[in-house]
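Quick start: what a row looks like.
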Amino acid sequence: MKKQSLLFCILAIMGQSLFAQTTINRDPEIEKMVKEVSSDSLKAYIVQMVSFGTRNTLSTQTGDPKRGIPAARNWVLGKFNEFAKQSNGRLTALIDTVTLQPDKRRIDTPTLLGNVVATLKGTDPNDKRIFLISGHLDNMRSSPTDRIGDAPGANDDGSGSAAVLECARIMSKHNFPATIIFVTVSGEEQGLLGASFMANKAKKEGWNIEADLNNDLMGSNNSSETNIIDNTRIRVFSEGLSVLDTGRVATNIRNLGLENDGKARQLARYVKEIGERYVENLEVVMVYRNDRFLRGGDHSPYVQNGFAAVRITEMNENYYHQHQNVRMENGIQYGDLPEFMDFEYLRKNTAMNLSNLANLSKAPSMPEEVKIETRKLTNYSSIAWKAPKSGKVKGYYVLIRETTSPVWQKKIYTTQTEYNLPYSKDNYFFAVQSVSETGNESLPVIPGIAGR
C-alpha cells in the first residue's frame, strides 16, 4: 500500500507539472519557413550591396553596372525576378520611379528615384488585404549629398534590405490568401522620399494595407560609448495616437481611455507575440514612440496616411558605424562595414519579420462590427461581432488585458460571435481576433459601443 501511495503521489505531481506547462502552438508551415532563414544568405546579400561602392540616392545615373544606386536597384530587381521563378507566376517585380526636383536641401539636381517592388499576389480573389515589408536601399556618408565617396551601408540599411530579400526568397514558394509586398525604397536619407512616394500612391489608389513592417538598422548587436553587447532583443517602435485622430474620433479615444490602442500600437503587440512565438532566444521590446527620439523612418509616411506601420530596429545602435565616412580616428574604426555586423542576430530578426508576415497573410481578415454592450451597469462585459469579410474562420479569440498592461494577458477561444466575460469593462481592455483553420490570428479589433 505504501508503494502504491508513493507511486500515486509521483504520478499526481507529474500530472500537475505537465498541466502547468505553457504550450506554444506553432503553424508547421510557418515554423518550416522560419528555419529556412539563412545567415549566410543575408551576409551574401549585404556583401553584394556593399560592392556597389555607394548607394546614395544622388549617386551616378550614367548606367554604370557596378557602382551607384541604379546598379544596386537593378541587382535587387534581378534577385526578385530570380525568386519569381519558384512562385508559379504569383511574384512579379518592377522598379517604380519618379523624378525628384531640387529642394535646396538634400536634393540638389533632378534625380530619378526608384523603389524596387515585388508583389506576391494572394490566392483568394476576395481578399483585398496587403501586408508590406520594407527596408531602404539607399545609404549615406557623413553628408547626405556626398554622392562620390564610398559608403558601404552594410547595416544602414543593408540589413533591412537583406531581410526583405530573404523573406521574398522563402515566402515566394508558398501560397497566402492575402497579398504581400516586398520593397526596398530609395531616398530615405534624403527625407523619406521613396516611402512617401509609395505611401501617398497607396492612399490615392485605395490600397488596403493592413500592416507595414519597416526594417531599418537591425543587424548590429553592440552600442558605441556604452559598449553594450546584446543579440537577444529587438525594438519595435509604434505611435499611440494617429495624426488623423481628431475631432469626434479623438474625443472617443479620450472617453474610452484608448490612447494606447491605435493601429500601430496594436500591430506592435502582434509583432511581439508572434515574433517571440516562432523565434527562439529573442525578445521583442515595444517602445512607445513612433521612432527614436526626434528621428524618423520610412514607416512614418504610412502612419501619416492612416495605415498601421511600425519601425523595427536593433536594440543598441552604434554611431561609429552609422552615417560615417570610413576612416580610422583616435584608434576607432568608423564606417558602416560588414565586419561590424552580427549575422546570427540579423537571421533572428529576419525570421521574426517572416513569421509575422506569414501569420498575418494566412489569417482571415479582422472580425466586423465588434461591439461591447453598455446599456446597463454590470460587472460582466458582453461583446458581439460579425464574421470577417474574407478567409476561412475556425473561430475567434477574445483578448483581455488590464488597463496597465502593455500586452494582451489572456486569450479565450470561441466558435461563437458573442461572448459574456466575467470581467468588468472598468478594469480591463478587450479585443477580438479571427482565427483560421491552421490557427493563424488576424490583427485584433477593439470593440466599439453597442446601441449608440
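That is the whole record. The chain has ten helices and 17 strands. The domain at 368-449 is CATH 2.60.40.10 (Immunoglobulin-like).
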